[in-house]
Amino acid sequence: MNENNLINYYNKFNEDKRLKTRHGYLEFYITMTYIKKFLNAGDKICDIGAGSGVYSKELSDLGHEVTAVELIKQNTRRYAKRQLTWFRRNQYLSFDL
């Protein structure tokens, strides 16, 4: 799959809406439960394929230094637009475009 096919595929979805459904919330809760089992205080995290940054934000809120990497501009714009003020306040999060 080339880069354009990948971008076209993921532009069909709205990750924010998906994670706000009952199933999406359950996925988030279970995934975060397992992720937390393997993290130590102060661990640095690289979230590759970060989507709209929901997991990155949660991990940063827990005190981890997070670098979120996302190819799909729609996802990065959605997250950056919604969280611009939060980005400026949070020393633990960087978002690479």
Q: How does this structure look, described?
A:
There is one protein chain. With 97 residues, this protein is an alpha/beta fold. Helices cover 57% and strands 14% of the residues. It has a three-stranded parallel sheet with strand order 1-2-3, with helices on one face. Strand 1, helix 4 and strand 2 form a beta-alpha-beta unit. The longest helix has 17 residues. The mean pLDDT is 81.
Structural class: alpha/beta
> How would you characterize the largest beta sheet?
3 strands, parallel
What average pLDDT do the residues reach?
81
Q: Low-confidence spans: pLDDT under 50, at least 5 residues?
A: none
Discrete helix count: 5
Beta-strand segment tally: 3
Q: Rough shape?
A: globular
Strand content: 5-15%
Order of helices and strands: HHHEHEHE
- What is the helical fraction, as a range of percent? 55-70%
Name the strands of the widest sheet in spatial order.
1-2-3
End-to-end Cα distance, whole Å, is 21 Å
Evaluate the radius of gyration.
14 Å
